[in-house]
Amino acid sequence: MPKFPILTIAFAAAALSSTGCDKLDEALMCAPACDNIQTCGDEVTPPTMDLGLGDIDLGVEAPSLVDCAVNCTSDDRVTLGYSNCQIECIESEACGDINGCWNVTSDVYARYCSVDTPPIEAAATESGDAPEVASGTVSGSSQADTIMDNPAVEASVDGSETPIFFGSSPPLLEGGWSAMGAIDRASNARPAGSPINTEICFYDQGTASDGSPEVSYCEKNNPMTATAPITGDGSDWTLYLEFAPTGSIIFSGSMEEGASSMADVDALVTYYHGLEIWEHSFTDWTRNGDCSCPF
Hints:
CATH class of the largest domain: Mainly Beta
Radius of gyration: 21 Å
Number of domains: 2
Strand order of the largest sheet: 2-3-4-5-6-7-8-9
Helix content: 10-25%
Largest sheet: 8 strands, antiparallel, barrel
């Protein structure tokens, strides 16, 4: 996002006055919050939106004081973490607690912003029977349960109508895959038509010590390797790639045994610094054969 040479909040308000009363009101509303960020200095770390995987990031840099004045009055201010309730939070909280205004799981966030989100339920199966899940889990994976307990994920799954397949016996994803698609709907994120394009290598799919299924992975031309929870049953699967504290990507689809491709795999990107910041795509997956990490 381009940055503008606005040197003070007062100047921002003056500049915005020529664009209409709404913008001037926003500038006046933002001034105390941005002043608090300046006062707190390095104790405040505004959100980053770089997930570090695939061509799906919004490219927004962590705001400085000047950026706060611009971003807080931007048409995309909710995307950037400056919804009305968050602005009130930033203005009101002490320096050591302001970062909680950008953490939807925090008590600080809940004091100012509604987190009344519906719990995630399992997608229907072809048989209509509930799949078997690992003991002590809801979805089949304890790690997946934790990810889905995040209000931002609950809101994005509900709003995007992304199916989530429960179960502790997902199909085997091991090998290299290309995933390509485009956003079909979004909330406070990139517009429809924006691409998602990545190549991922999956390996060592198995179970954790508590019986939760998991798979290791890496992305092409990315040195990072990680292990992610995966749930599902039969041909249905849901994969949860989390990049805490920034956000997560959930892929959800169906794959017949031995398939070399998958169509219409749901891809849901959720950012954690506010509610209703997500984008959904349908992606087509093509198997690339054997792979090893890094690749």
